[in-house]
Design brief:
mainly alpha, 3% strand, two-stranded antiparallel ribbon, 239 residues, 2 strands, elongated
């Protein structure tokens, strides 16, 4: 046999060995997969018993189960309290599970205390409300009194102003009357002269004033623009 034949045989043996190793590895992996796929049913049963069932019971107890309901109706009828109790729990024999007499008495006392406390709270609340209303009413009365005082003061001020204006009007009227009286007195005191023949303003001034300067007074009193006068003319002779 030549070297090439040996090499070919060795190569064939090597390939066979590799194929066997691959087959052995594949068989091992298949066994492992089969082992993994096999589960123990006892574990799932125990898991359901110890975890799922307690969780369901807990949910039922917390959200759905109501062992007993007591409904108390408080009725004030002459100071008496009427209680109406409702119990939904039933005993195993089909009868209602009644509370002992001691617990009922305790419940009655507790409800009575609660109603008394509520009455006291209501009384205190009513008293506070009454105090607030009284304070509010007093404040309103005070505001009304202040407004009334302001109105009275305003009316007094207006009356005072009217009185002052009235006094001023009276004084003004008195002053006018006084001026009229003075004018009447002046008019009554004025002298009248009738011009005669051969008279002129110079002679008339000398007659009444003994002074030639009286000519200007006579002219001013009679509104004369010149010294010419006529016989029979009336002239006012001022003082």
């Amino acid at each position: 046999m030549s070297k090439e034949d040996y090499r070919e045989k060795i190569e064939e043996h090597r390939q066979l060995i590799e194929i066997e190793e691959k087959n052995s590895r594949m068989s091992r992996t298949r066994r492992k997969v089969k082992k993994k796929k096999r589960k123990n049913p006892l574990m799932s049963i125990l898991l359901f018993i110890f975890i799922v069932i307690p969780v369901m019971v807990l949910v039922y107890v917390t959200f759905l189960y109501k062992p007993g309901e007591q409904e108390v109706a408080k009725v004030d009828n002459g100071g008496s309290i009427v209680e109406v109790q409702k119990n939904d729990s039933l005993a195993s024999g089909g009868k209602e599970d009644k509370k002992p007499a001691i617990e009922e008495n305790e419940d009655k006392e507790e409800s009575k205390k609660q109603t008394d406390k509520e009455k006291e709270n209501a009384k205190t609340e009513d008293a506070k409300q009454a105090e607030l209303e009284a304070a509010k009413k007093a404040e309103q009365e005070k505001q009304k009194a202040l407004a009334k005082e302001k109105e009275l003061a305003k009316q007094k001020e207006l009356a005072k102003q009217k009185e002052i204006e009235k006094q001023k009007e009276i004084e003004k009227q008195k002053e006018l009357e006084k001026q009229k009286q003075q004018e009447q007195q002046k008019a009554s005191q004025q002298r009248v002269h009738t011009v005669q023949s051969n008279e002129n303003l110079f002679r008339i001034a000398l007659k009444y004033y003994n002074d030639p300067s009286g000519v200007e007074k006579i002219k001013a009193a009679n509104g004369l623009g010149s010294d010419s006068i006529s016989v029979g003319q009336t002239l006012i002779i001022p003082e």
